[in-house]
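During the reporting period the student researcher (J.K.) took over the structure-prediction task from the postdoctoral fellow and processed the backlog of single-chain submissions. One of the processed entries is reproduced below for the supervisory committee.
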Amino acid sequence: MSLNIIGISAFYHDSACCILQDGVLKAAVQEERFSRKKNDPDLPKAAFNYCLKEAGITISDIDCIAYYEDPVKKLSRQLWSGSRFITADSIRNTDHAAVERQIREQFGYDGPVRFYEHHLSHAASSYYYSGYDHAAILTVDGVGEWATTTYGIGKGAKLELFEEVSFPDSLGLLYSTITSYLGFSVNSGEYKVMGLAPYGKPLYVDKIRQLIRNGEAGQYELNMEYFDFLKGEKMYSEALPALFGLAPRKKETAILPVHEDIAVSLQVVLEEVLIEKARYLHEKTGAENLCMAGGVALNCVANGKILKSSPFKQLFVQPAAGDAGCALGAAALAHADLSGEGMTSQLEHVYLGPSYGSAEIKKLLSATSLRYTQHKDDEELVKQVAQRLAEGKVIGWFHGRMEFGPRSLGARSILADPRGADMRDRINAMVKKREAFRPFAPAVLESATGEHFDIDHPSPFMLETCQVISSFDLPAITHVDGSARVQTVGEKTNPRFAALLKAFADLTGCPILLNTSFNVRDEPIVCNPEEALICFVTTDIDCLILEDFIIDNENNDTSILEMINQNLLERPSFELNPNVYTFI
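J.K. obtained the following structure tokens:
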């Protein structure tokens, strides 16, 4: 009999579900990919059904559902702060019994439910999937129940958190406050600030330092004179614009050099604090390995600086480091409790979501007027796609199981030649429909990484930046400061994507492709073939690859594409693989 454990994060943002079978991660997916609601906070019902189906079990086979936080402690913090975010829904989720009741009612589940604290789930989501038998653990986010930063140690199956920084002092909320001040959305726009930072000059570092006071050991404090998130009306007080001598930027207005300067100054101070606290953690633990999780751990620029500027020799960042990844951590904690054993196998990939077969896709395409070709020979397929990429075409790439986490890693990706001088601007404007300053990431054959990027270890999850050292001019993936957020691709974890990179290298000498997520602005990454088709016909993507099928824009009349788009948008749901969408 297998030990089947479901992990869940829900009721805040970016809900997700995963399943462990005897300590092996079989499936994990965010609810937004099914509901199409960006950062969907609801109980992950569709994701739950998918996980059961992928594992080949029914509800009666589940040994435990593990929930990612303590709702009672969370409510106590909300009540203490007088948060306006206490709603009817949150009141219904204020104790273990209330959350457990919703799980039982909406899932039809009558077995054990275990609750784990938020930052412990974060810590477990990194340590238990790192492959390390001994590691220091640093978790940093906005806030869980009360903790905002925790310091811990993992040895074998045992994980312990020995110090924390408590709300309202929070590096995550510091970053989110400046994110809001700069006119971007909290909980989703922080990565835009990180991308904006290299354009600026660190002229406001001293002013940012006035917002945070360093403390002894792992502690620090925010200067609450400048913040207003306790009341919940807005993130910052009137003292913050006065400090900068600048009114807050309104959303969708012009980004000025001063906004760039504030962004880079924030990034500098964040890195200073994180590096100092990482050094403290190393002194306390003596570990050579560092595990990180929490939303701040998605700051790939800071991650690279921590590894280079602290005594740690290796760094593992859980690829879905935000709240979605807490589902993995909660499940791992339940596994350790129920089995007495930890999980020490490294998470090698995150291709943990749904896949769709050629028969399903052909059924969809046959219902349209699209002209397409099918290539059952993988070698011929990748040669055809590589040729189109070498010709400067933008490719929608849909293959295998969907990625878990915020990055597209060669399963649901938009791909292009990184050497094109206008490629970044073209994709930003005509495909992604987003801000022009936003950088794109490179995917590179793992075996060729060191020739083109200043990094000496694999980076399969796009969670570190490094300098571009390639002899090729790579303007589409090189940021203004000469850096790139690299994904290394190995043949073991994604053989078709690796084969495509090799085929492109055979044609051009360049083993690198621009790789960005297969979606448009404010939409979740595509999950199924229908969504990929909608994205294709509504953007400037030149060619769509749906598993073995190639659909070229130039071979299909504009009128046909418009008609298909209208028909798809009018359909209530994707008819293929209906089990994924059957709610209990």
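The committee noted the following: The chain has three domains: 4-70+85-116+329-339, 165-317, 358-568.
J.K. will present the remaining backlog at the next meeting.
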